[in-house]
Amino acid sequence: MTILLVDDHPLMRIGMKAVIQGQEDMTIVGEAKDGNKAIQLFRRLHPDVVLMDLRMPGKTGVEATAAIVAEFPQARVLLISNYDGDEDISQAMDAGAAGYLFKSIMEDEMLNAIRQVHAGKRYLPRAVTLRLRERTAPVRLTQRENDILSMLGKGFSNKELANVLGVSADTVKTHLKNLFRKLNVSDRAEAMREAIHRGFLHLD
After folding, report:
1. What share of the chain is helix, strand, coil (3-state, %, to 5)?
2. 129 and 158 both lie in a single domain
3. Which of 90, 84, 74 is nearest to 42 (CA)?
4. Does a structural domain hold residue 204?
5. pLDDT tens track for 122-179
6. What range defines the domain where residue 170 resides?
7. DSSP string spanning 32-70?
């Protein structure tokens, strides 16, 4: 089978390449460091499987996956990430990914996942499968709520939020109240923990 590697970190690509090149049934036909290049290479190379990082500068792995699958419905994309938030995983699968892996996996699991995805199956670690089954109705945040979460992560006070957003302090309190309700939390600290857990916020 032919494989396209997509990751903005050269060391990650080198590591994955070292594992894959030792397999008689796998051949790496291309490498990309961002989502836009991945789409271009897929159009030209038509690889059997794409092993793609979830978060990259510019077009993300989720966005690139959605674009590739929209143009090539039979494409098999396996997203790989450091993040295990519910929202990250849900967005990946909604975009059309055939599987989701954590970068902390062992070599054998990665190879098994690639082969299963190539065979037309969906691959998810057992822990991910259980979490998706238990997941209740997805939480949808507005763009303003996502902006506020990002600023909370940077330590902004209510007054600073109001100044940046150009709204009153009361409006900020209303946004925070709605955000806390959606995340089922009661304060900023809990909101931060829950947002990180769900994959709405990444502190990097």
Report:
1. 55, 15, 35
2. no
3. 74
4. no
5. 898 876 766 665 555 567 788 888 889 889 888 899 989 989 989 898 888 888 888 8
6. 143-198
7. ESSHHHHHHHHHHH--SEEEEES--SSS-HHHHHHHHHH
Q: Which helix (H) or strand (E) holds 176?
A: helix 169-183
pLDDT at 64 over 90: yes
Using the 3D structure, point to which of 109, 134, 159 is the last residue of a domain.
Answer: 134
Token pair 């945040």 in the structure block, residue: 141
CA-to-CA distance for 35 and 62, rounded, in angstroms? 9
Tokens of 25: 């049934």
Q: How many CB atoms lie within 10 A of CB 169?
A: 12
Q: Which of 104, 99, 110 is nearest to 132 (CA)?
A: 99
Name the strand (E) or helix (H) holding 198. helix 188-198
Q: Which residue has the higher pLDDT, 189 or 28?
A: 28
CATH code assigned at 189: 1.10.10.10
pTM tops 0.70: no
110 and 18 share one domain: yes
pLDDT of residue 86: 62
CB 93 within 8 A of CB 61: no
Q: Both 172 and 130 in a single domain?
A: no
- Is the Cα dihedral 173, 200, 132, 96 positive or negative? positive
Examine residue 74 and state whether it is found in any structural domain, yes or no.
yes
What's the one-letter identity of residue 193?
R
Total domains in the chain come to 2
